[in-house]
Design a protein that fits this description.
- The structure holds two protein chains of two kinds.
- The two termini of chain A are 26 Å apart.
- Chain A is globular.
- In chain A, helix 4 crosses helix 6.
- Helix content of chain A is 35%, strand content 25%.
- Chain A has one domain: Rossmann fold, CATH 3.40.50.300.
- Chain B is mainly α.
- Chain B folds into two domains: 151 residues, no CATH class; 239 residues, MetI-like (MetI-like fold), CATH 1.10.3720.
- Chain B contains 15 helices and no strands.
- In chain B, helix 3 packs across helix 4 and helix 7 runs antiparallel to helix 12.
- The longest helix of chain B has 41 residues.
- Chain B is flat, with a radius of gyration of 31 Å.
- The chains are: A alpha/beta, B mainly alpha.
- At the A-B interface, helix 2, helix 3 and helix 6 of A face helix 11 and helix 12 of B.
- Bound molecules: adenosine-5'-diphosphate and magnesium ion (MG).
């Protein structure tokens, strides 16, 4: 499946990636390419390793002491697990949005300004304000919060909090955005807003979204990867996966036979 | 009969009540006409409670009021007419008479006391017998009452439950009532003090020298501001300058950097420090740190530096408080959801940026509450300052100079020659009351902050 030659045109490429938590092999020999301007959905039954694999893409697995990652993951052709990769820089380039909205207990402004501040992206206060405004606008939250930027981020509704987290992630101008079931804790209306937002963001970033909701995958993604028991079973154009899956297991899953 | 034996007898009666009641309940049971509502043993406990609790309650009340009654009876006796009118002297003679009554060979006794001894002895034993008799009668009467109530449908079980609940309630009230009692007595003694000394002189006066009190204007030398300042300076400034940074840093290390193995032994070790008796810290302050601080001051060019500097006491007190601050900060850091940490790390922040910009600010209310509690402990701390701080009340900003604290002055005022009516002694109560109120306020504020903070993460 994998080739020694890596076309630089892929934004990220995983080559033979396995992850183990102690003795538990959670992800097995996964190889996958992720491209700019596309939304890639990871689907599969719960516990099949979607989140674990997603976390390898920005090395968030480093924060779990028992996790061991093997194989290589290239970002613009550069192995992010090589010794000279700066994790801080990597995570600025590959941003992440979590399942449960996790705004910091700071003001809305400070939440968005957090990344630009630690990475020194703004040279002046006006600059910083411009970044915050642009990010909130892109996250579709500006109109709702522009008059109360100094209110606490934790005082927003769940859907607003999640969009704030998205604004926080895009404030550092990442190239890839990873989203781990970003709407699973939200009500249908807030979910629809997030999906709409993903549509709008598609042109600027490579987006990877984990979801256990197949309709959602069909709605927001151009590519879909089906995971089962730690393996990547099938990966292709979303339309093909949902209308003409090649693997028996994929078919069983999307027709609701199990999961 | 002494109280101990009497209690045993009452407990024995309780056992008899238990056995009798159970036997009676069993008879109903065997009669088989009707099922018992409660188990036989529950009837037993019901009767036992009735047999034991009323006489014990009576004895508790009796032992509180009978000494007064004994004294009244003795004073009414013509033999006691020679007793002095001064309460203090009179009570001393009566106490001696009582000692002679218990041990006729007691020496060095006022002759009047020796003459009164038989009267005192007889009166006391008469009241003791009355108490014993009433207690025994109560035990019998209440026990018998309980046993007569046993019927198949009698709900002994719920009654026992209720009695148990009341007993537990009383047990938990005791600590609260004791605190209240202490507060009330402090309050009354303080009121007496403020009868001698205007409260404004005490709270705002800046001259404190209880050794030389002008009888006409005691307030002039009982101004407590130097003590308040010294307490604040040693306990809330110097000690906290040590305890806050070190406590916070060790909490950050333990929650964020230490491996589980390190944490497993380091945290209990640190917490063990909190169990070291403060007198040990006192030694350390007086014998090691204080001389070192004096040398330091001499090096700085003050050949007459005090060896009882505020710095020595404050530093050691700070060390003593470190585990306290650290464990409170540890708890509040651990209460910050890991999602906050992950969110920050995923933005590309380093661990130390995450700690200083997200975790510590998020944990701040809890840390502040911990510091307030630590301050309240520090200003109430006594042993270290008694051993290492000075008795001289000065208002100074120089930590190498001597300063004294409220607790140290209380100890000085109450030890040694003391008459219980003088403004000098009563001042100790006013100081105690002030300390009590301040610590109470600090604790209330801290607990509120903690509560608010807990709610924020629920
Ligand atoms: N932090 C962790 N420590 C140990 N095991 C984990 C951890 N996270 C996930 N796992 C295990 O890895 C496997 C895959 O989990 P996960 O990646 O969360 O699946 P998914 O996101 O597809 O539901 C599961 O068996 C899970 O128990
Ligand atoms: Mg998951």
């Amino acid at each position: 499946m994998s080739t020694a030659f890596t076309p630089v045109s892929h934004k990220m490429s995983a080559r033979d990636v396995s992850v183990a938590y102690g003795d538990n092999q959670a992800v097995k020999n996964v190889s996958i390419d992720i491209d700019m301007d596309k939304v890639t959905a990871f689907i599969g039954p719960s516990g099949c390793g979607k989140s674990t694999f997603l976390r390898t893409l920005n090395r968030m697995n480093d924060t779990i002491p028992s996790a061991r990652v093997t194989g290589e993951i290239l970002l613009d052709g550069e192995n992010i697990y090589s010794a000279d990769m700066d994790v801080v820089q990597l995570r600025a380039r590959v941003g992440m949005v979590f399942q449960k909205p996790n705004p910091f207990p700071k003001s809305i402004f400070e939440n968005v300004a957090y990344g630009p501040r630690i990475h020194g992206l703004a040279t002046s206060r006006a600059d910083l304000e411009a970044i915050v405004e642009r990010s909130l606008k892109r996250a579709g939250l500006w109109e709702e919060v522009k008059d109360r930027l100094s209110d606490s981020g934790t005082a927003l509704s769940g859907g607003q909090q999640q969009r704030l987290c998205i604004a926080r992630a895009i404030a550092v101008d990442p190239e890839v955005i990873l989203m781990d079931e970003p709407a699973s804790a939200l009500d249908p209306i807030a979910t629809a807003k997030i999906e709409e937002l993903i549509h709008e963001l598609r042109g600027r970033y490579a987006i990877v979204i984990v979801t256990h909701n197949m309709q959602q995958a069909a709605r927001v993604s151009q590519r879909t990867a089906f995971f089962h028991l730690g393996q990547l079973v099938e990966y292709g154009e979303t339309d093909n996966i949902f209308t003409a899956p090649r693997q028996e297991r994929t078919k069983d899953y999307i027709t609701g036979r199990y999961g | 009969m002494n109280g101990f034996a009497l209690c045993f007898v009452i407990l024995g009666l309780g056992l008899i009540g238990w056995l009798t009641a159970r036997a009676r309940a069993l008879r109903f049971d065997r009669g088989g006409r009707k099922r018992l509502h409660s188990l036989p043993a529950q009837h037993g406990w019901y009767a036992a409670a009735w047999t034991v609790l009323p006489p014990l309650l009576f004895l508790a009340v009796w032992s509180a009021i009978s000494p007064g009654m004994v004294r009244q009876t003795i004073l009414r006796n013509p033999a006691a007419a020679q007793l002095s009118d001064f309460a203090f002297e009179r009570d001393s003679v009566l106490a001696q008479a009582r000692a002679v009554a218990e041990n006729p060979y007691a020496g060095d006794v006022d002759p009047l006391a020796r003459r009164l001894a038989p009267l005192v002895g007889a009166t006391r034993s008469r009241y003791a017998w009355i108490g014993t008799l009433v207690a025994a009668l109560l035990a019998f009467a209440a026990g018998a009452y309980a046993i007569t109530r046993i019927r198949p449908d009698f709900r002994a079980r719920s009654q026992v439950e209720r009695t148990l609940m009341m007993t537990l309630l009383v047990a938990s009230l005791i600590a609260i009532l004791t605190t209240l009692g202490i507060f009330v007595s402090l309050f009354w003694e303080s009121l007496r003090f403020f009868g001698h000394v205007p409260i404004t002189d005490f709270l705002f006066g800046t001259h404190w020298s209880p050794q030389v009190i002008d009888a006409k204007d005691p307030g002039a030398s009982l101004g407590a501001v130097p003590l308040f300042w010294g307490t604040f300076f040693i306990g809330a400034v110097i000690a906290m300058l040590v305890a806050i940074p070190f406590g916070l840093m060790s909490a950050v290390y333990l929650t964020q950097y230490a491996s589980p193995t390190t944490r497993r032994w380091m945290k209990p070790t640190l917490e063990m420090l909190a169990g070291v008796p403060t007198v040990v810290y006192g030694y350390f302050a007086a014998l090691t740190v204080a001389p070192a601080m004096r040398q330091f001051a001499v090096l700085l060019g003050d050949p007459y530096a005090s060896s009882e500097s505020a710095l020595a006491a404050g530093l050691v007190m700070g060390v003593m408080i470190i585990p306290f601050v650290s464990s409170m900060a540890d708890d509040s850091l651990a209460a910050v959801p890991t999602a906050m940490r992950d969110g920050s790390l995923a933005m590309g922040a380093t661990t130390s940026e995450t700690i200083s910009k997200v975790l510590v600010p998020a944990a701040l209310p809890g840390v502040v509450a911990g510091v307030l509690l630590a301050v309240s402990r520090a200003i109430g701390e006594t042993m270290i300052v008694v051993m290492a701080a000075s008795g001289a009340a000065t208002i100074t900003l120089n930590p190498l100079e001597s300063a004294t604290t409220v607790t140290k002055q209380i100890v000085d005022l109450l030890t040694g020659e003391a008459e219980f009516d003088s403004p000098k002694t009563l001042a100790a109560f006013a100081l105690g009351l002030t300390l009590f109120v301040i610590t109470l306020l600090l604790n209330i504020v801290a607990l509120r902050v903690v509560k608010k903070y807990r709610e924020a993460y629920e």
